[in-house]
Amino acid sequence: MSYASSLGDEESVQTRKLRPDEDLESRNVSATVSMATDRHLVHSVVVPPSSSVWSQFKEGVNDIFFADQPLRPYKEFQGSRRWLAYVYYAIPILDWLPKYKLEFLKGDLIAGFTITSLSVPQDLACARLANLPLVHGLYTSFVPPLIYAMLGSSRHMAIGPVALVSSLLGSMLRPEVDPEENPGDYLRLALTATFFAGLVQLGLGILRMGFLIDFLSHAGIVGFISGAAVSIALQQLRGLLGLRRFTTNTDIVSVMRSIFKNTDRWNWETICLGFFFLFLLIAIKKASQVRKKLFWMSAIAPLASVIVGTLLTFIARLDKRGVKIIGKIHTGVNPASFHDIFWSGHYVPAGFKIGMVTAFVGLTEAFAIGRTFAALSGYRIDGNKEMIAQGTMNIMGSWTSCYVATGSFAVSAVNYQSGCKTALSNIIMSIAILFTLLVLLPLFRYIPICILAAIIIQAVLSLIDLRAIYLVWRTDKVDFLVLSGAFLGVIFLSVEIGLLIAVGISFAKILLHVIRPHTALLGNIPEDEVVSTDGTPIQYLIIEMAPVMTIDTAGIHAFEEMYAVLQKKGIQLTISNPVGGVISTFKNAGFVDLLGQEWFFLSVSEGVQVCSMMMKRNQMLAMGKENSKFSENV
């Protein structure tokens, strides 16, 4: 008798070849040795040994949180070498920086300075979206990219404030604190939300719970981002029209009502200046998409627009004619803000709620960006490392006057097209931002608000992926319902409600597919009947269990009911190829004893062999009984 591994470490099989002279008719199927012919081997499933409750709990936790076993390759190392390998795994820069090639430096330098020219005006505009002092946008492009360069796994992702998260943060903070009446508490709550956002992201990474991001389907992401892009663009009409009073709501009805009720307050100098640069930015963007070699034009266009618009405003004194400018910005590096975070009081729950929402949105955007450029460059990102990197940089950012940062798709695309080779481009951008904070800020005083609004509108319009929307419509109408719900929820209600709708519908779809999988009821086709050739009824039912990875008490109960029904009809139930977790659950629930271990097989073919042989044996026994009765009668 020999034993062989069959399904990994969790299962074993038992084999024996029967002698040709063994009497099969008088032999019963046992739980330890399977029946076979003299030409075949039949394997029976052996139940894994029982384990303690603690061992089962530990295995369950490992299967959920550490299924990929990230540290397994380093267990062969000994002592300090193993701990050093763990440190290298946790801090990727220690791995790639010593291997850095000088030939990469040119591409990283060009990419770093190019994305700086794009980031500076976008940082100012994003901070305005969040209703924060504009300098905090630059702060957020200084510290977080440095942290990400050390801990992140993406080579091309550019870190900083983004329009989507900034708008979401601003819309959720305003109901809690008015930024105009109480700017100090508003800033403190923003830092508190940033801290909790980082804490949530870091916790998800440590617990390896990146699968939670998958509850928001691709269709939900497309609908949410498209709706948010439309909502953000509509809100920027305030800056393009020169309106000083505007609604604090983000839904399209409130925004349009606020615009057309104040037509007498539109500033035509602002409108001409803002729309001119908006059309110019869109035209340059389209030209760079048609001719890939002109990508550098779209990269420097925002900064060039800011410079030209600032000069026009200063020379023509447009600020005296109603064109709003950003005004004086204090120079200097990020001030420490650890003590500005609300560690107690009634703002803490609000900060946690806002932080949790922005954490998930930031991770969703970062994952999409990281996977896109990793696929283009032939490498893979580590989702759990990304969450740890994003969480760490936001926690550290909240202590240095930064608000929620994540990957920017537009800046990352320019980073990739500029020839970026490693995450060093983020470090170069941070150094350039530091120089801007220390030296160049006084030059920003006359930047027109309308140009920042034009930059934001041009940036968010590229987030509306019409091709992806059409593809969702063609492929899956239920997914299109998810997309539509998220889109309409954002533009007619609010950004956070649209996100909840997307998550809710996506989660409901997953549950629906699990609880109500697609089934087909088979019946007789008219005028096409199948006639049995031998007239024997069904005696055995073999269920293939290989696709079933786990089973719960409801599943066990269903099997027990099936077994009882089949027994009444004289049909023997058999199980084929159950995995280790399933057979263990069967054993613990007593179903193995109920059915009999001899009716568990490693494959359908082996089950068919045994069942066919049993049918033949039963026929032979029946024929023998008939012959004996006939002899007695004779």
TrEMBL record:
Membrane topology summary = Multi-pass membrane protein
Q: Which domain of life is it from?
A: Eukaryota
Its transmembrane ranges are 219-237, 266-284, 296-316, 395-417, 423-444, 451-473, 485-508
Q: Which key words tag this protein in UniProt?
A: Membrane, Transmembrane, Transmembrane helix
Q: Record's CDD domains?
A: STAS_SulP_like_sulfate_transporter
Q: Which Pfam families match?
A: STAS, Sulfate_transp
Where in the cell does this protein reside? Membrane
Map out region (Disordered) in residue numbers: 1-25
Q: Where is the STAS domain?
A: 489-611
Q: Which NCBIfam families does the record match to this protein?
A: sulP
Protein's recorded name: STAS domain-containing protein
Name the species this protein comes from: Riccia fluitans
